[in-house]
Amino acid sequence: MSTGTQRVLGELLAVGRLQAFAVSAKGFAFDPRTGQSFSINETGVRTLELLVETGDVARAVERLAADCEVPAEVVEGAVTAFVHQLGRYLA
Amino acid sequence: MTARRAWEPPFIQPHRHDVSPFGRRGVDDDIQGAIAGVDIETLIDRWGSPLFVASEGRLRENVRRIREAFASRYPDVVHGWSYKTNYLGAICRILHQEGSWAEVVSAFEYEKARALGVPGPRILFNGPHKPRAILERASAEGARLHVDHLDELATIESIARDRGTVIPVTLRLNFDTGHTEPWSRFGFNIESGQAYEAAVRVKASPHLVLTGLHSHIGTFILEPRAYGEQVRRMAGFMAELEGEGHDAITSLDIGGGLPSRNALQGIYLPPEQAVPSIDSYAVAVCGALERAFADRPRERWPTLIFESGRAVVDDAVSLVASVVGTKRLPDGRRAVVLDAGVNSMLTALWYDHPVRLTRPVPGAPEETVLYGPLCMNIDVMRRQVRLPPLAVGDRLVFNPAGAYNNTQWMQFIEYRPAVALVGEDGGHSLIRAAETLEDVCRPERMPAHLQTGDGTR
Lengths: 91, 457
Fold this sequence. Notes:
The complex is a heterodimer. Chain A has helices at residues 3-14, 17-20, 42-54, 57-68, 72-90, and strands at residues 22-23, 28-30, 37-40. By secondary structure, chain A is mostly helical. In chain A, strand 2 (28-30) and strand 3 form a beta hairpin. In chain A, helix 1 crosses helix 5 (72-90) and helix 3 (42-54) packs across helix 4. Chain B has two domains: 27-53 and 315-436, Lyase, Ornithine Decarboxylase, Chain A, domain 1; 127-306, Alanine racemase (TIM Barrel, Alpha-Beta Barrel), CATH 3.20.20. In chain B, strands 4, 14, 15, 16, 17, 18, 19, 20 and 21 form a nine-stranded mixed beta sheet that branches. The radius of gyration of chain B is 25 Å and the shape is globular. At the A-B interface, strand 3, helix 3 and helix 5 of A face strand 1 of B. Strand 3 of chain A pairs antiparallel with strand 1 of chain B.
């Protein structure tokens, strides 16, 4: 896991961005700071939960890989891209 | 996640706000499992995918409703079925059974109408290219000749002179209604005096008689008042000619251009709100006719002819396509590859066709690009539509898809698909078979020196 990805996550959590991000179970998300709304797919909603809950990209990857029975290497690449997306949209 | 699910990478997509929020349906409302009561999977099992499906009931209902809108407001109304909109034989036959005449624009379309049994006097012959041979046939069979230019008028006069007869003609007019972009390339212009000169030339000929006026102000006209102004201008020109001793004009043909409930690209409102009702067009046209001819006895009111195609057939035909692949584009958008593209539905180039799923699909809807099967960058069926995550084999229904697709489709890269008809009794039959290699290659010829050799050398 690249330290850059963990750093992006850490910064989002440190300023409360992810915690304030309102996400419905159906994947509708709202950023109260900017008023921008988003759609997040089902895996994305679960990934976001795990990222906030664990605060750790590697642990989120591990849990997702187990849930979905997908090799951790596959999940890691996808979660890395997702965290960087979050960084772009919420920073 | 409590149960193992198919893996899809996590994804977040910002909502764009450049698409009209009005009239946007929820995903649950966008499910359409049947066409005219027949299960779509049954149709696909029988005829394959992609598949155009026409509803006979909807087609008959449409033409009756549209004609009635005018016939309930004016005493003498003829609907001319615009062949170029969809000239599949079964579609034309249904409309002729409903009393519609044929409106044709080429020798091919004229011959097709006659082959379907339409009598010459019930054919309106428009178009800028009518070779002498087809004019000879059409005039002999009593078709209504709508003259586009002076050279055509001279040809008709020559035919009549050779036969020693008089041929009735209709002049096609163009002018500015002030509501739509003028279509000045067809017919004779009123403002410049060309139309008057053409009428004088007809009057001067012992072999021609002017019996009708025609104009077509454009396509997908969203302003009913444009038709009211069109009628006012045509009636004014008619009165001018009659006042100068021309023969009585017995028909005014207002052409076509009535819109369907399709979604033109670039129009913000959805069709339910952007497209006026047919009745509002009929009110504009028939009201203008009544005002124009109020001082004449009813028996001298001209026949009103209208040539609607799109409004009659568009929503009576659907295109069912199947998902053959999915991908995520580098900019994050979800993309779907379908087995039908602009080769089958060319109108995707200018419409955002409404699209529905044939079954509920779980998952969060996202803005999705729908690509066709062509190895060409232009092959886009929808640039942006909110859909849940689709998988190979899922079906999408595009409707309205009946106007200008089964005529403008291309044999390009892929075979053209079959067209099925669901009858009013719920039975379904093929009205055009899917194209085969034999169909495509039949007109080809192999020169003698290329007869041998299979490319293995």
